[in-house]
């Protein structure tokens, strides 16, 4: 079992919500990786809007390459790997979509990008611009949960 500080750093790279990571650490040990993920998912259903909003600060804009060498930047690079940086039209459309989204909702556009191509992400961004603020708040929390649990599964997967 990893020391609490190591476990906290790993969990915060999955979702920058300290209360979530502390609650998971306090519940250790888990019988299996699956039981840990199930527990983490149940806790994530309780995230409040402010926690989700704070966690967004560690996510780069879709189409922008994450800076830094931390675990969360590494996750973001892998998740966005299907967004082709050489596609100038897509890059311009994502930039404009991000600008419109941030202007409308006051936060970065977040989507579980793993396995999605750039054009699919752009189409989803455009659809979500039609959401009400309340709908988008729920959708953003859902996407953050998906990202967090996917990252946690990756962290727990045997090498």
What does it look like?
- There is one protein chain.
- With 159 residues, the protein is an all-alpha fold.
- The chain has helices spanning 4-14, 18-26, 33-44, 49-55, 71-79, 88-105, 118-128, 133-156.
- α1 (4-14) packs across α2 (18-26).
- The radius of gyration is 16 Å and the shape is globular.
Q: Tell me the span between the first and last alpha carbons.
A: 16 Å
Counting H and I runs of at least 4 residues, what is the number of helices? 8
Structural class: mainly alpha
Radius of gyration: 16 Å
Largest sheet: none
Proportion of residues in β-strands:
under 5%
H-E order:
HHHHHHHH
Topology of helices and strands:
Elements: H1 4-14, H2 18-26, H3 33-44, H4 49-55, H5 71-79, H6 88-105, H7 118-128, H8 133-156
Helix pairs in contact: 1-2, 1-5, 1-8, 3-8, 6-7
Keywords:
mainly alpha; 159 residues; 0% strand
In a few lines, what is going on in this structure?
The chain has helices at about 5-15, 20-25, 35-45, 50-55, 70-80, 90-105, 120-130, 135-155. It has about 160 residues and is an all-alpha fold.
